[in-house]
Amino acid sequence: MSALVSAGEVTPFDSLRRLRSNGSEFWSARELMPFLGYAKWERFAESVEQARGVIAAQDGESAADREASLCREAFGRTNQVGVNYHLSRRAAYLTAMRGDSRKPEIQQALVYFAVKTREAELGAPAPAPLEITAAAGPVSYRDQAEILAILRPALPEPYATATAKVILARAMGERPELDPAETPLYAATFLAEKGHKAKTVAKFQSGFGARVSNAFLKRHGRRPEKIPGPAGSRIDKVAVYSDEDRPLLEEVYAGMADLISAFEHGDQIALSA
Fold first, then answer.
1. According to the model, what pLDDT value does residue 101 have?
2. Parallel, antiparallel, or unpaired for β 25-28 and 18-19?
3. For residues 3 and 25, is the Cβ–Cβ distance under 8 A?
4. How far, in Å, CA of 248 to CA of 45, rounded?
5. Which of 32, 144, 148, 174 can pair with 169 through a Cys bridge, CB separation 3.0 to 4.6 Å?
6. What is 32-99 written as a DSSP string?
7. Buried b (16+ CB within 10 A) or exposed e, 145-168
8. How does pLDDT run across 37-67, given as a tens digit for each residue?
9. Strand partners for 26
10. Which residues contact 127 (CB under 8 A, 6 or more apart)?
């Protein structure tokens, strides 16, 4: 099994959680740092400051000072005195979001703080949200994250990163925000983006995909990476591209635009790769 948080499991983040005399909770940035995969305080402090900036932009500087309070205190085995931050749950979550989502430590932290934040909003432990898939029935977002972590070594990195962000955003009830460079690009979605109807996409996605794959092979000396096809689909594997490959898809599309237009005007079209 992966290192992601499982239901009822006590994680390092639970043991690092501290309580003030008034009952409010916080996490020491110095203690949290190694559990987010950081080796140098300077880099981690930059992530904390970025998180403070997000809170300040949303709720003002006073909220940032309250949720990521700067202090000087003793830490470590030698009780060295230095700068530290006391982080709220939200500040810790935002700090984790600034890390490399490919690291298992960051994945675990994101899931933990996302779930704990949601539980706090609801006032009780929240049941794992469900998303319905075409073939397998309900699969919780937590299970989706587990599956992604297990399969990640076999997946193209842009696809894995984007999928992780989508799962996390949906679990939090947010709209996924993806960098175009991280967003997977498929032949079928490219055709749909051009405004073609489902019938046209179904007709041309195979031939268009084969031509794009051939063009990719000619340009890069290898075939594009593939991922499993959609649940319940007859497609076993589907080629996945990134936004960097979009000019190549545009080039292939330009060579097929007349064929596609003719089909949409009622002509009978035969395709070849």
1. 72
2. antiparallel
3. no
4. 41
5. 174
6. HGGGGT---HHHHHHHHHHHHHHHHHHH-HHHHHHHEEEEEEEETTTTEEEEEEEE-HHHHHHHHHTS
7. bbebbeebeebbebbbbbbbbbbb
8. 999 999 999 999 998 988 888 888 999 999 9
9. 18
10. none
Is residue 196 left, alpha or beta, with left meaning phi > 0 and alpha meaning psi from -120 to 50? beta
Question: According to DSSP H, which parts of the chain are helical?
Answer: 12-16, 29-32, 41-59, 61-67, 89-97, 104-122, 141-151, 157-171, 187-193, 198-220, 246-264
Q: What confidence score (pLDDT) does residue 121 get? A: 56
Tokens describing residue 223? 């075939």
Q: Give the model confidence (pLDDT) of 102-116 as tens digits.
A: 788 887 887 788 777
What's the confidence (pLDDT) of residue 176? 64
Q: What CA–CA distance (Å, rounded) separates 149 from 3? A: 8
Tell me what pLDDT residue 71 has: 92
What tokens were used for 204? 């041309």
Low-confidence ranges of the chain (pLDDT < 50): 1-8, 126-138, 230-234
pLDDT of residue 205: 87
The one-letter amino acid at 180? P
122-138 in b/e burial notation, b at 16+ Cβ within 10 A? eeeeeeeeeeeeeeeee
Q: Show the tokens assigned to 3.
A: 């290192």
What would the two tokens of residue 144 be? 């989706």
How far apart are the two ends of the chain, measured CA to CA in Å? Answer: 42
| Token pair for 209 | 């995909």
| pTM flag (> 0.90) | no
